[in-house]
Amino acid sequence: MGKIKKSVVFKEYTPGQLLLLPPSLEELIPQAHLVRVVNQVVERMDISELINLYEGGGTSAYHPRMLLKVLLYAYCMKIYTGRKIACALAQDIHFFWLSGMSRPDFRTINRRSGARFRSGKAKDAIQVLFSSMLVFLMEHGYIRMENYFCDGSTFSADANKHKMVWKKNAQRYKASAEQKCRQLLKEIDALNAVEDAAYGNKDLEEYGPGPISQQVIADQIEQLNEKVKGLTSKKTKRKAQGLGKKLAQAADRARQYDDQIQTAGARSGYNLTDPDASAIMMKNKVEVLPAYNVLAGCEDQFITGISLHQNTHDGTCFKEHVTQISAQQPAPVENIIADSIFGTEENYELLENKGINSYLKFPWFHGEQKKKYQNTPFLKDNFHYDTAWDTYTCPNNQTLSLQRSCKQTHKRTGYQSQIKEYECSSCAGCPFYERCCKSEQGANRIIKVNQKLDNYKQQARVNLNSQKGFQLRKQRSIEIETCFGDIKANMGFRRFHLRGLKKVTAEFTLVAMAHNLRKLHLKQQKAAA
């Protein structure tokens, strides 16, 4: 054995020693701890909508305010599953204090916290809770609902990436199954000696190459079964039965593929594990995964609006996003700031109708700031427009007059734009022809103009290039990107744990509330320092 130095003195260490007066949990929790912030905010929130979800009767239930505190604090600490939350309630002193030593098991957490807080059943209650938190932040001066910095980000769904159903494949397979049905119908018709009794004066070709209705196939199978009963030839009978069986199988396949097409809807495909998840190209531009598109907005890095979408294009989701956040926010926002993907005619018109100041960039906004763009006179934006005569003048002083006007429908949203086409009177002999006109030699220069969009873009230029607009543009990349970065990197939330659009919407709302609590805690620490 080694020798122990006599001069070494250790503090007393007696494992398992009983205490006459156990320490209070209140004394063990620091005053500036995050768990106290969670407790303070939830205590002041209106949770009447949540309480109304309880039917009453039977045994006593855990208080929903306690469960909400536990769930939000768990999300703050990167704990997202019921079993891990139950484990923390049995081991972590901060959870002891927050729950008042209550220890609901994971079934209770999943049933009460999950089914009522996170699932689609309590989606409205979740939105009210989120709105109540925004009211708290607004009353204490953390947000003013003045600026709304908006952007989108993708989060993976809780789904198997190898179980994607693609709409184009379903359409191709359905066409193949319907073609098989046509061939079988012709073979069945060859066995039918009394064709007029089944089709009258119609021939099978009259059904055409298009889809064959399930009713037609069902009628054919029924008639074939009736005919089989009267057949005397065993060979003919077996053939008729085989054709009927093959026709039923082909019809079932066609019906299955049709259901897949209907489920996909406007999407390119869906996932079998989570049918609400869409195939989305992730940020790494390498893989396509089942995911959801999350649109969110913030002010001073507090998330003040959330919506989840199956559409991968942020600009087409913006209208629905604005509609949803209007029910979440305690007051309408004054300014909305977003990137160029949001700068569409429909979105500009939406903000104008709602009286919201638009700071939406549009495509080529940054390109217009370059000298190369400004020094290119042959772009249609640089042609001089005469409002009195409704004509454009090219760099060669030739007049482009209005030739036709038509409506253009947006493929994704169905929004209609008014497009005008202007054509030059004569481009023959123009010294700038090769630089100005990209069409075939001899054709006149034609430009297509959306005057309504051009007016919105001009207003956007004025707003964005103002001193306030420059500051907001600079701030946007810091504001909302920081929120998504905190959620993905610091909170470790990159993938949903629930399935279905309504459930993941409620889940991300909880994540946003947890993010706001973490941000509030940091601000309070800085203020106290």
Summarize, please.
The protein is an alpha+beta fold and 529 residues long.
Name its key features.
single chain; 20 helices; alpha+beta; six-stranded mixed β-sheet; 529 residues; five-stranded antiparallel β-sheet
Q: Which band does the percent of strand residues land in?
A: 5-15%
- What is the arithmetic mean of pLDDT? 85
Helix/strand-derived category reads: alpha+beta
Tell me the number of strands. Answer: 13
Distance between the termini: 51 Å
Which regions contain 5 or more consecutive residues with pLDDT less than 50?
193-207
Helix content: 40-55%
H/I helix tally: 20
Largest sheet, described in full? 6 strands, mixed
- Tell me the radius of gyration: 33 Å
Indicate the overall shape.
Answer: flat
What does this structure look like?
The protein is of the alpha+beta class. Among the domains are: 25-143, no CATH class; 165-270. The protein is 49% helix and 15% strand. It has 20 helices and 13 strands. The chain has helices at residues 25-28, 34-43, 48-51, 64-76, 82-91, 93-99, 106-118, 123-139, 167-191, 195-199, 214-230, 234-264, 314-328, 345-354, 365-368, 371-374, 433-436, 451-465, 467-490, 501-528, and strands at 147-156, 164-166, 269-271, 278-281, 288-299, 302-309, 335-338, 357-360, 384-386, 391-393, 399-409, 416-424, 446-449. A hairpin with a 6-residue loop joins strand 4 (278-281) and strand 5 (288-299). Helix 4 (64-76) packs across helix 7 (106-118), helix 5 (82-91) packs across helix 6 and helix 8 runs parallel beside helix 20 (501-528). The longest helix is centred in the middle third of the chain and has 31 residues, at 234-264.
